[in-house]
Each structure stands twice: as C-alpha cells, then as structure tokens.
Design goal:
Layout: H1 2-19, H2 23-82, H3 100-105, H4 110-147, E1 158-161, E2 164-167, E3 174-177, E4 180-183, E5 189-191, E6 196-204, E7 208-216, E8 219-226, E9 228-229, E10 236-237, E11 242-245, E12 256-263, E13 266-268, H5 271-276
Antiparallel strand pairs: 1-4, 2-3, 4-12, 5-11, 6-7, 6-10, 7-8, 8-12, 9-11, 12-13
Length: 278
C-alpha cells in the first residue's frame, strides 16, 4: 500500500514537472514569440516599402514614357522642318505599356517592371541616337547655308552693272565684266554675304581697296572699290557682318561695290547667289 502511494506521489511530481514548465522555459518562449513578432513587423514594413518603391518606380516610368512621347513629337517636327525623308527616322513607334496613366493606375509585377525598364531604356537609347544624327544633319544644313554665298553685299542700293560683256565706262572698250556692281551711298556699309575667313584686304590694281573672303567648298567672294576696310587678313566674319565702307577707289566712276564670286579660283555669275537669298 505504501509502495502504491509512493508511486502515485512520484508520478504526480513527474507530471507536474512535465506539465508546468520552469520560469526559464517560459522566458525563452516569450523571447522567441517576441522575436517572431518583431521580425513579422519588420517583414510587413519591408513589404510596404517594396510596394511603395514599386509604385513610385512605376510612376517614374510613366513620366519617362511621357518624355519619350514628347521626344518623338519633337523628332517628327524636326524631320518635317528640315525636309528630311521620314523613312530614315522612326519616331512613330508607340512607347510600351500604354503610357503613364495605365502604369500609375495599375501596379506592375516585378517581372513586368523589369521588362518595362529594359524596353524604355532601349527606346531612349534609340531616340537619342536618331536625334544626334538628325541634329548633325540640321547643323550641317545650317552651316552650308552660312558658308554658301547668298544675298547682296550692301544694305541699301541698286544694281548698276551686271556680269558679262559690256562697254567699260572709262576705256570705252568692250570688256568682260567679272562681277556685279551695286551703287550706293559713299561710306555706306559693305557686308559679307556668307561666313568665312578674310584672305586678302588691301589695294589691288583696278580694284582699289578690295577684300577677298574664303567660304570653303572652293568659294571666294570679292568686294572692291571700298573707301575704308574694316577687317584684316585672317579675320573670321559672319554672314551680314560689315567688312568695309562703300567707296570709289581704283578704276571707278562713283561710289559702288564691285562684287565677284569665284569657284575654285574662276569667276562665276554672282546673280544666282544673289537670287538665292530670295
């Protein structure tokens, strides 16, 4: 009997030990629970930040796509203004994903976001390359316009003698007139008809005070009979820049500018260059 009572008591102690954990075990469990809860909060925060980052990035992609659309519109306008063959430039491709509203209002999955970024990067690189080429074409065209002789060498005045055979007003003989004469007021401005570099500025027999300007592509323009020269050899001048004052130096009967255009050293009729400005 005593043995049975002892067994029951000892069993009760064992059950109490197994069913009633110690304070140390409870503290450890509480610590684990706290860690799990803390990590869960951190994970939730990370998810919230990730969602916010995805939304922000999606919105940013939308803005960039809108920028691509504006670049396309600008590209098409430049192609039209420059009168370049549209088939050489593709500004018609629609940006991926349908524009900023579709992206902003509906979130993207990570894979879709990565794909959108890659495609947008390709589009931007493609547009940049096309715009660089287009810019160079436009700049070259503008440069050609600047260095191509065109227009009149005076601001006010009229044509008093054309290019070709004529009776010289001083000698009375039939001679080849190698330029066009523009009559004007003494001291009036003489201007460059194109951008170039002054290669001669001084006196020359028959021409009086004369200026030669080289424009590239084999073109040179000559301005003779000036009363005063305002540039020197080596000076760079722009189209419309005043280079001299109208005079009557050299073989001349009155104030005017004798204007010549030379191509590879040979005189050519300036009339087509004068008309080109119109």
């Amino acid at each position: 009997m005593i043995g049975i009572v002892g067994l029951v008591v000892s069993g009760s102690v064992y059950v109490g030990y197994t069913l009633n954990p110690s304070q140390d075990n409870l503290a450890l469990i509480d610590e684990w629970q706290s860690d799990v809860h803390r990590h869960q909060l951190q994970l939730n925060h990370i998810r919230e930040e990730a969602d916010a980052d995805v939304d922000a990035l999606s919105s940013r992609i939308g803005l960039l796509q809108a920028h691509v659309m504006r670049l396309d519109a600008l590209g098409r306008k430049l192609v039209k203004m420059a009168r370049i063959d549209k088939s050489e430039f593709d500004f018609e491709t629609t940006p991926a994903l349908g524009g900023p509203e579709a992206i902003t209002n509906k979130g993207l999955e990570p894979d879709e976001l990565t794909q959108a970024i890659d495609q947008l990067g390709f589009q931007l690189a493609n547009r940049e390359d096309q715009l660089v080429v287009l810019e160079n074409l436009v700049l070259n065209e503008n440069l050609q316009k600047e260095v191509q002789p065109s227009g009149r060498p005076i601001v006010k005045g009229w044509i008093s003698s054309y290019y070709g055979m004529r009776t010289h007003p001083l000698s009375g003989r039939r001679e080849m007139h190698k330029g066009i004469d523009f009559a004007g007021k003494l001291g009036g401005p003489v201007i460059a008809v194109a951008k170039g570099v002054v290669t001669y500025a001084g006196k020359r027999y028959g021409y009086g005070q004369v200026i030669d300007i080289a424009h590239g592509n084999g073109y040179t323009t000559r301005y003779a009979h000036n009363s005063r020269l305002l540039v020197s050899v080596g000076d760079t001048v722009d189209k419309g820049f005043q280079i001299a004052e109208i005079g009557s130096s050299g073989r001349s009967t009155g104030p005017h500018v004798h204007f010549e255009v030379l191509k590879n050293g040979r005189v050519t009729n300036p009339v087509r260059f004068i008309r080109a400005a119109n």
